[in-house]
Amino acid sequence: MDGENVRPISQAPPALPAPGTLLVDTSRADRVGEFRGVAGPYWSLRPVGGGAEWEVEPRHVRPAVLMEQLRARTARLNARSRGEVL
Fold first, then answer.
1. 32 and 46 Cβ atoms separated by less than 8 Å
2. Is the pTM above the cut of 0.70?
């Protein structure tokens, strides 16, 4: 059996990010959200422009790359200029 293709049965959970860190939820079409905290076995994320938080399993989360961060922050600034968010 080739050791390179064997995946451990249990993996350590990812490190807990700082509040406000932009993350991508891969289970929801790569939706970007701000890390808000932990709710049981789930992580709570909030849309960058405000709105309802959602929960996601940590295994479905990855850090947002620079382009995703810029896109999310630009969308928030545009919404703010239209008066949609504070």
1. no
2. yes
How distant is the alpha carbon of residue 46 from its chain centre? 8
Query: Apex CA 55: angle with CA 68 and CA 16, to 5°?
Result: 70
CA 32 vs CA 3, 20, 49, 53: distances in Å: 34, 12, 10, 12
Q: Residue 50 and residue 46: Cα distance in Å, rounded?
A: 7
Burial of 17 (0-12, 13-18, 19+ CB in 10 A): middle
pLDDT, one tens digit per residue, over 36-55 is 999 999 999 999 878 899 99
Q: What is the pLDDT of residue 51?
A: 86
What whole-number distance in Å separates Cα of residue 35 and Cα of residue 22?
Answer: 6
- Is 70 exceeded by the pLDDT of residue 31? yes
